[in-house]
Amino acid sequence: MAEDAAKQRLAVELPALPLARGGTLKDSLTPGSATQERIKKVIDRAITIAATPQTDGSWNVTLAVPIEAVRLALINDHGIRTMADRSDLGPPIVILEGGKPIKIVVIGRGSVEPASIAWTEPENGLAAVAKALEVAAVIAIERSVMTELARDIESALRLDQDLVAQGLVALRAVKRYAGKGLWSEPPLLEVLPAPAYEPLQRTFDLLIPDRSSLVVYVIDDDRSRIHTSIIAVKQHGDIVRAATHRAIADLVPEAAFARDWQKGYKRVLTAVEDRFGTPSLALFLERASLMKILTGPSDQLPREYNAKTVIIDPIPTWLLGLLGGATVAAMAGRAANALAGMLPQRTRDAAASIANRARDAMKESGAHPFALLGFDPIELWSRIKHFYRE
Question: How far is CA 187 from the centre of its chain?
Fold first, then answer.
């Protein structure tokens, strides 16, 4: 049959298909491998594009294989990383009635019998519950509060609000019930601020220029591939486009870039500028460096930047100032700790008061890049990072 002949032709031609990471499909078609079997199924399910009868009674058949079907056939060997089998795919929801659990649902696992968990009053913390459920986070909510919370959020939402504004509406509503029918482990609700939308938007506009792109790349520590990437475009105050490295992989092959990313990152910037817009902020680093920054001291980012294990190029002036300030502050802090034992308490208190007034004056003057927010995101992270679990 003409269709069978067309599939045989596809089986011959398809292995020459070039891949974004470099090489061709043939490189992945080891005889007898699971990938080869999946590609065979893709060819068997080829789509008929055209079937034209000929005057001699034969048929001219055109078949096609979707590129996405090929990508999915490769997915278990290369492409997208599959989610590991973890018990903490999401925070369990504990529904309470009168302070007692009546239902526990662990996202990714299903329901858990409440009687199987040693329960303590949520006011005393949920750390023991999280440990018993073998998860990193827990949310507990009174059943009566669920209805009230939903009503409060729905009444405050408007169709003209963007996603960030709606998220802040929900956060403010949730914070109103923190400790009053709603609890979390870690206890972040008491710590996280819920700023108004306008200061947040104005800060974003101040720090990131319009008609520019933001680029973030995290590379696997063995430099075999890109761990995470995001390319975002800002226009008229909003993120209007978002993509990953796949959007430019034909210009900058993933494997080649990951092997020598510290030299090859400029090729990424050129490709992003061609397809998205001129980058105003681009960050490149390996995963190990990211973890050090997230969990290390306040000047870890400047340290990594100076050691060139983190590349920020282009780097806005405000961020360059923050890096310098963090370095100076950390050095001063270490020096102050060394001298503290030599100074009387009254002198130390006076020095701390002067430092706090200077910091507040900088924020009030508008010189600090986060002055409009009413809080410092970097300072906030330093307060909550001990909750972080890799």
Answer: 21
What's the sign of the alpha-carbon dihedral 345, 349, 355, 358? negative
Q: State CA 357 to chain mean position distance.
A: 35
Short-list 298, 321, 286, CA closest to 385: 298
The string of pLDDT tens digits covering residues 60-106 is: 888 888 877 787 777 654 444 444 444 445 678 889 998 888 998 88
The dihedral sign for the CA sequence 244, 250, 254, 260: negative
In the three-class reduction of DSSP (H, G, I as helix; E, B as strand; rest coil), residue 84 is classed as coil
Return the DSSP state at 82.
P
Q: Quick one: 146 and 9 in the same domain?
A: no
Q: For residue 349, what pLDDT is reported?
A: 54
Q: What is the value of pTM for the model shown? A: 0.64
- Taking the C-alpha atoms of residue 188 and residue 184, their distance in angstroms, rounded to an integer, is 7
- Are 254 and 310 contained in the same domain? yes
Nearest CA to 306 out of 289, 294, 282, 318 is that of 289
Q: Give the C-alpha separation, 386 to 295, whole Å.
A: 7
Task: Write out the two tokens for 327.
Answer: 């370095």
Q: Cα–Cα distance between 226 and 287 in angstroms, integer?
A: 10
Distance (Å) of CA 212 to CA 209, 252, 321, 333: 6, 20, 21, 36
Helix (H) or strand (E) holding 229: strand 226-235
Number of domains the chain contains: 3
Do the beta carbons of residue 329 and residue 358 sit within 8 Å? no
In this structure, are residues 261 and 224 in contact, taking their beta carbons and an 8 Å threshold? no
Rounded distance, CA 374 to CA 387, Å? 23
DSSP state of 325: H
> Residue 362: which domain range?
204-387
Of 194, 228, 261, the domain-final residue: 194
Contact 215, 272 (CB under 8 A): yes
Q: What gap in Å lies between CA 381 and CA 193, rounded to an integer?
A: 12
- Whether residue 199 is contained in a domain is answered as no
For residues 354 and 234, state if they share a domain.
Answer: yes
How confident is the model over 203-249, as pLDDT tens digits? Answer: 999 899 999 999 999 999 999 999 999 999 999 999 999 999 999 99
Strands (DSSP E) contained in 273-335 are: 279-286, 310-312
pLDDT tens, 340-356? 444 455 544 554 554 45
